[in-house]
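Can't paste images in this forum, so I'm doing it all in text. The chain is below; anyone willing to post the predicted structure tokens underneath?
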Amino acid sequence: MLNHKIPIGLISYSNGEPNKLKLISEISTSREDIKKKSLPKGSERYWAKYVDATPHLIWTLLDVAFKLNDNDDRRSKIWEIFFDEFYVPKENQNKLEEFESKVYFWDREPMKPLSTTIKQLKKKVESEELTIEEGIKILKTRIDHNFTGDNLYHSYRKNYFPLLDHLGLWDDQAYLTELGYELHKKGKLHGATSNTFRDYLAKIFLVEGKHLDLILDIEKFTRNVNVNSSEEARKIAYANLEEKGLVQKNPNRATSECAGKFFSNELQLWVHLGLLNKNGSYYIKNKGFMFNWEEITRMISL
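Text version of the structure:
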């Protein structure tokens, strides 16, 4: 029913007798029916946080979850399978050699996880600061599944799992939702690196992930603003969101972060999805950010 999506009612009346009204459907005011722009539990923003995930990476996580039978700790098991079989295959975990993952970038080229870490450790081995055995031991510690505290194994998961949560692709136990099944099916039928899959994922980001709300807010706060750069415009937009309580204020935010890094990950995502044009710059002075409204409209209409 339409009134489960937006707060409207429906009445009818007879021609020539407009005073004879009949209530067909009452206005729905249920909190479940009306989606409000608010901060999800445990989140610092109302939109889905994005850090480095790619369409193929998202689909691979969904595929692991889809295939996994009942498990006492599905979320941990899904990450273990994804990490050991696709992201950093076990055969690459015991040597200081860069490798190509079985997960792909936006340009359909294989990812190279741990490349920075491996390069740093190899450099220390070459300079005789470490033996090869010591270097491998450090690498294994950084991807140790049972490590107490934070290491690369746990940090990578923190980048990706909250995104699938916020997009509503799986539930608390990582069973695929109806939306997750539909997205997984798109990847199965058309390929997880296909334009069809990418477009449907873009729609999910825009609607379920509330990135359309964020784009509209940024556009409103930066339209025709007389600033010289994207960095200044982003600071203005973020300050407005803070003032309205749409992001959590952080009084301890570092000065370097205030220098204009707000929304950097989101801008990169929108360029990849075709939602933002980048002809030398995301932003044109006195005009605003170059959002591709034709593509945005097309994707939310899919």
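The beta strands are 10-14, 17-25, 283-284, 288-289. The mean pLDDT is 87.
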